[in-house]
Amino acid sequence: MLRITGTRTELWELVRPVCVCLLAIGVVAWAMAIKGWDMTSLELGVMLLGIGTIVVMHIHRVLKGFVHDSALLRKAAIEAERHYTDVLTRIIGHVEGRDRYWTGHSHNVAALSEKIARKLGMPSDHCELVGLAGRLHDIGILAVPPSIRMNRSRLVVEELRSVQKHPEVSYEVLQPLGSIAPVLPAIRWHHERLNGTGYPKGLAGEQIPLEARILAAADAYDAMTHDRPHRPAMTPLQAMLELRRCTPAAFDPRCVDALAEIVNLPDLEMTVAGERANRVAPAIA
């Protein structure tokens, strides 16, 4: 459906010839009613046909102008959103770069989320959106006071509540971006858990969008495989085993299975088994 927008002057330029044409039709109809099909009426009919042709051409020209202007506006809006997204991504990178515990986190979550979405068979363009959601999912962390973000000890209850607000803040900050509207719920709910123990709303099961469940698995895996202030990094195998342990209570089995394929879990298990065997062999000898 064509959506016509414009100033009153532009709209009047479109409507005016139509009004003239309707007036001409009225005149011809009146003349024919009075005089019948005489020469004068036929001449008026020919004139009306000419006027109608001109009107159609005029409407076509004006509509082309509207369509062209609308296309330009859409292009400008997309470009503006792209710049806005780039700025937000740079801000996230800058904030994460100030803390060695979080450097590269959003980039990693974006890459894993897009790969999981592809493993689950989502359309390619939607997979890219899921990846973009992963890149922007933590923008709301900027609303958390630096003293809490940089805290190296376990958070107290009030500090934890402050941190738990960040998905809602991320959602509010990103809401103006129409281009990522399909994955905004994923950003808002990526800390929800299937058993209802997550935040900010305690959603459960199918109440949580699939895209949010994808982000949740990717986010948790990357967090576990990197050092945090209160604990050292887990190995990829340890992180996957922990995700398995928390599935399906917290994480979607489909997302965890897809992630296991991406990180090649069988190879991780074989590598660890081989290392254990090598350690045991000298002891036996």
Protein described:
Helix content is 69%, strand content 0%. The protein is mostly helical and 285 residues long. It has two domains: 1-97; 101-275, Hypothetical protein af1432 (Orthogonal Bundle), CATH 1.10.3210.10. Helix 1 packs antiparallel against helix 2 (39-97), helix 3 packs across helix 9 (210-224) and helix 3 packs across helix 11 (253-262).
Instruction: Please indicate the count of domains.
Output: 2
For this structure, what is the CATH homologous superfamily of the largest domain?
A: Hypothetical protein af1432
Helix content: 55-70%
Tally of extended strands? 0
Structural class of the helix and strand makeup? Answer: mainly alpha
Largest sheet: none
Question: What are its keywords?
Answer:
about 280 residues; mainly alpha; Hypothetical protein af1432; 2 domains; about 70% helix; elongated; disordered N terminus
List the helices and strands and how they pair.
Layout: H1 8-35, H2 39-97, H3 105-119, H4 124-136, H5 146-149, H6 157-163, H7 166-174, H8 184-189, H9 210-224, H10 236-245, H11 253-262, H12 265-284
Helix pairs in contact: 1-2, 3-4, 3-9, 3-11, 9-10
Question: Short description, anyone?
Answer:
The protein has 285 residues and is mostly helical. It has 12 helices and no strands.
